[in-house]
User: Which sequence fits this backbone?
């Protein structure tokens, strides 16, 4: 595979399309042999990861996916082959220097327990010798990026955070020095399913802004379908069984191994391919903190709604309030954030939205966009319609291949 | 006739007389009489222990950092430390005197030797217990081996290391008494002079005064080290 992809990292952004900050990664005939083991752990893998895309390495345990990932930042030294990031061969670069420019996120975040959140995020910028003011500004920026209030979280210690929050700090830390490439090794493996779904949404939202090149290892095929621009399904020895877009893999599994890996219900998995942003959102009755409750009630009644979603000053949803709670004149002066408010992001899949709806008492779920701002709501009818629209073509595609 | 001593200080005169005559007094009186000497020897005792402890800590940390990455070297270090602690201290002082003429040097060398062992043991265990995922995370961010050791592993192992230092300090307070045998400094001189003339006037008092002073100072030193440990341990890992 010798095709040379021109990276557009240096080209200016044109139009509304965000600039690609990532760099292409090319694994060229990379092999890893461990002494005393007959079969190589990774056997001659050649893989090109285009700039600004998320590529998922997925496969059964022991297939060498993590080894492949760790060879990119040379936590594991390849025995043979070359690895290029951008146009630079990093196989002979000083490994510490290389790693300072490659973000790395592991399961459980790997935060240093004896350092505050701010100091954790500042680790790589400090290694790179940034000055104090720049580091401080960057830490604040990063915390805002991952939706953690800087005033509230900067001086906390990791053990004072929930698992999901730790993982977000882990991502913020990996992005702090603005590396073009981000390596993620089963980062969301140790959190509960709801938190995992939110973290996945958040990663997709971040990626819309940042356009890094992300290599993501997982054993969860659903996660791969949801997050990946492309998926590389790996067999033992990191042999690539199929490397394609999720749509193409679901519609056209290359062989029995891939079919087995996809598992049953490939058609239903297509629901994972539709994003919330692809369907028409509904308008809910909206009020802001500080608004006049009477006006909010009037507006809601005009729309025929019984609940109003309250937004904070930054346009982020706080909680649903029933109309009767809005009858009090001070109902909108102070509104507490509902920590369990069901919400999905524009990048979430309809599958996620459906999950959230089933736990919500409203039959609707709030959709948030950049920086957690309110965008609209998805209703259960919308998901149903989308499902019906999807089923038929997916079904046909499935039939053609058999 | 004017008395040689003012009447109101007759009791004091009597006490001087008693001491001069070698008659025993109560322990309390004995301590009061020799307060300044006891104070001075106590200061010397603690000073000897603290200085040896600093040497021992540095030595143990260096040895631990050299050995903890290899499990074989680690087990050698651990068994060496167990064997070392069984070495009778009295014998070690005796052997060292044969080579080193200076009593103070002998004391410091012997105490540093004993002090190193518990700290080494705890440091090796503490460093080995650091989550390998964190070390990998540090390396993955581009921290060098040394930076990882200094900024991640030692801070995380620190609570265990400081416990080792406290154990060492307690042990050294006791062993330091034997320094007097090698004509080193410290409260051991009270104990030795008492024990060497047992049955004589104030012999028991002397031994008791030295022993109790060591116990009191050991407790105080432990309090100080405990406080120091809390102050130097990050709030994020304090129990």
Assistant:
């Amino acid at each position: 595979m010798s095709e040379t992809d021109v990276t557009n990292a240096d080209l200016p952004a044109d139009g509304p399309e965000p600039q690609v900050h990532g760099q292409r990664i090319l694994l060229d005939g990379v092999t890893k042999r461990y002494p005393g083991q007959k079969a190589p752990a990774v056997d001659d893998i050649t893989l090109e990861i285009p700039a600004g895309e998320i590529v998922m390495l997925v496969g059964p345990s022991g297939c060498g996916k993590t080894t492949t990932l760790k060879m990119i930042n040379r936590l594991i030294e390849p025995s043979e082959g070359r690895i290029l990031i951008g146009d630079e061969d990093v196989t002979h670069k000083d490994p510490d220097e290389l790693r300072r420019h490659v973000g790395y996120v592991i399961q459980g975040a790997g935060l240093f327990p004896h350092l505050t959140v701010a100091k954790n995020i500042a680790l790589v910028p400090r290694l790179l010798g940034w000055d104090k003011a720049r580091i401080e500004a960057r830490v604040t920026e990063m915390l805002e990026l991952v939706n953690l209030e800087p005033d509230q979280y900067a001086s906390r210690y990791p053990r004072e955070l929930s698992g999901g929050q730790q993982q977000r700090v882990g991502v913020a830390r990996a992005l702090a020095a603005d590396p073009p490439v981000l390596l993620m090794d089963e980062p969301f493996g140790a959190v509960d399913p709801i938190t995992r779904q939110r973290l996945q949404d958040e990663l997709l939202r971040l990626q819309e802004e940042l356009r890094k090149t992300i290599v993501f290892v997982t054993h969860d095929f659903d996660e791969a379908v949801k997050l990946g621009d492309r998926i590389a399904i790996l067999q033992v020895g990191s042999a690539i069984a199929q490397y394609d877009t999720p749509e193409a893999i679901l519609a056209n599994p290359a062989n029995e191994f891939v079919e087995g890996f996809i598992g049953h219900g490939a058609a239903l998995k297509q629901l994972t391919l539709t994003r919330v942003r692809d369907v028409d959102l509904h308008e809910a009755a909206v009020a802001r903190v500080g608004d006049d409750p009477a006006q909010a009630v009037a507006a809601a009644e005009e729309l025929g709604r019984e609940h109003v979603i309250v937004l904070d000053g930054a346009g982020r949803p706080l909680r649903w309030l029933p109309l009767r709670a809005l009858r009090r004149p001070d109902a909108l002066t102070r509104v507490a954030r509902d920590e369990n408010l069901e919400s999905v992001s524009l990048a979430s899949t309809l599958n996620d939205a459906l999950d959230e709806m089933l736990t919500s008492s409203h039959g609707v779920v709030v959709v948030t966009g950049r920086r957690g701002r309110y965008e609209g709501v998805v209703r259960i009818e919308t998901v149903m319609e989308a499902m019906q629209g999807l089923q038929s073509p997916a079904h046909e595609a499935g039939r053609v291949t058999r | 006739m004017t008395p040689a001593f003012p009447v109101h200080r007759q009791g004091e005169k009597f006490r001087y007389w008693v001491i001069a005559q070698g008659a025993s007094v109560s322990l309390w009186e004995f301590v009061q009489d020799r307060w300044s000497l006891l104070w001075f020897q106590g200061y010397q005792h603690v000073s000897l222990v603290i200085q040896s402890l600093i040497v021992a800590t540095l030595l143990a940390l260096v040895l631990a950092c050299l050995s903890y990455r290899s499990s074989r070297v680690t087990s050698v270090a651990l068994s060496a430390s167990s064997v070392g602690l069984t070495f009778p201290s009295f014998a070690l002082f005796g052997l060292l005197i044969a080579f080193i003429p200076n009593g103070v040097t002998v004391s410091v060398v012997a105490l540093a030797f004993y002090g190193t062992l518990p700290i080494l043991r705890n440091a090796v265990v503490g460093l080995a217990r650091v989550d390998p995922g964190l070390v990998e995370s540090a390396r993955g961010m581009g921290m060098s081996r040394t930076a990882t050791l200094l900024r991640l592993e030692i801070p995380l192992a620190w609570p265990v290391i400081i416990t080792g230092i406290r154990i060492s300090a307690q042990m050294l307070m006791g062993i330091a008494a034997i320094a007097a045998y090698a004509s080193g400094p410290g409260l051991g001189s009270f104990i030795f002079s008492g024990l060497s003339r047992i049955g004589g006037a104030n012999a028991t008092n002397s031994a008791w005064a030295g022993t109790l002073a060591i116990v009191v100072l050991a407790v105080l030193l432990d309090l100080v080290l405990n406080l120091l440990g809390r102050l130097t341990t990050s709030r994020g890992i304090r129990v």
Summary: Confidence is low (pLDDT under 50) at residues 1-5, 17-21 of chain B. Residues 108 and 131 of chain B are 36 Å apart (CA to CA). DSSP finds ten helices and no strands in chain B. The interface with chain A takes residues 133-134, 136-144, 147, 152, 155-156, 234-237 of chain B (CB under 8 Å).
